Amino acid sequence: MNWVHDVEFIQCLYIIAFALFIYGLMGLTGPRTAVRGNKIAAVGMALAVIATLLLPGMGNWWLIVLGVVIGTVVGVPAARNVKMTAMPQMVALFNGVGGGAVALIAWVEFRHSNGFDGEPAYVAIASLFAAIIGSVSFWGSNVAFAKLQELISGRPVSIGKLQQPLNLLLLLVAVGCSVAIVAGSSSEILIILVLVAAAVLGFTVVLPIGGADMPVVISLLNAFTGLSAAATGIALNNTALIVAGMIVGASGSILTNLMAKAMNRSIPAIVAGGFGGTVTASAGAVEGGTVRSTSAADAAVQLAYASQVIVVPGYGMAVAQAQHAVREMAELLEEKGISVYYAIHPVAGRMPGHMNVLLAEADVPYDQLKEMDEINGEFSRTDVTLVIGANDVTNPAARTDPGSPIFGMPILNVDESRSIIVLKRGMSSGFAGVDNALFFDPKTSMLFGDAKASVGTVIEELKAL
């Protein structure tokens, strides 16, 4: 059985694991292959873990078993029981745990090597880089979780003009202590200062960021965790950590950039904070500020006599768990010969793909889910657009009002439809904290109430027609 611990055999396991990582990631590019891709990548991770455990000199088996048991007991029920509306904050929390683990590993390595004494410089540099980025990711992710879970306010919290100088000071403290360690100091107080300064930096970077930017922040912190894991892999000479960390870091960085473009926001502007969560206009401040309400019966009549209907889902639909009722309503309309499509904005909901997963859960056909660029040309040919809980992604002020904080953000061209029905509990603003001019459009009717209950009533009225 000596071949089991053979280095070449272990490297072969790693290569197979990495191939499965990449193949699984490719499967995540489409809803039809996403589940399979996730399972393939999970098999790859299992192989990587097995290969790591087979490394010569691996010990502390009881601690490893204890860690696996604790992780399983906490992780499996959390993942199985989480609601789709809470998925973004669970992603933030689990991502933060990865960053925290990397930061602790750096501390352990510092203690184990007496301040990296006798270690090559690259080991110390990689470990300290991982300590800083991992700590920022852990504490920043916890702030993001608290904002999304509404444990703290989603509004920007900052100290004004002093915010960025404070962030810079904290970064300089962390980097300065790291330089002192690399230069040869073995004082443990220095590594503690590195971790504490980075922890406070995680707080001070994420707290000033408003709710509208939180999906981008989660993606950015995910990229940070990946990069810190890769750095730890370099320090520990662990191939699995290097490759897996770089995949996470690269994919997270690409996703962050794509989401920032979808919001017409630069990543530095997002990190600077201060956007989202504060209402910038009152209902009366919107030009032509008259809101028309409608009833489920009138909405059903409009839908029944349409030739094409587009449904625009948003976070409000997720909160109301209305996706199954929406699918049932769409099937009734299709039975009447009406074409039904779903317009998916890149940042609808609180994370990329949020609406896709919700609708797929309700067995909505994949070919009816249309991305923004694909569906925007259809709105002008659409008789009725049904907006269910979406807000900022349909706001025409993004095109027409240079003074709006969301000006320039690509939106769904809902206002080009012949008529619009908006299902919403009230007139509250979206994550960006600005009123939606679409609600005051003469073509728009508001159907107030819980989305699931409202769609259910519309279904009953459609059946009666």
UniProtKB/TrEMBL annotation:
TM region positions: 6-25, 37-55, 61-79, 91-110, 122-145, 166-183, 189-209, 216-235, 241-260
Identify the main location.
membrane
Where the record annotates domain NADP transhydrogenase beta-like, the positions are: 11-460
User: What Gene Ontology cellular component terms go with this record?
Assistant: plasma membrane
GO MF annotation terms? NADP binding; proton-translocating NAD(P)+ transhydrogenase activity
- Where found? Cell inner membrane
Enzyme superclass (EC): translocase
Function, in words: The transhydrogenation between NADH and NADP is coupled to respiration and ATP hydrolysis and functions as a proton pump across the membrane.
The text of the family note is: Belongs to the PNT beta subunit family.
- Annotated protein name in UniProt: NAD(P) transhydrogenase subunit beta
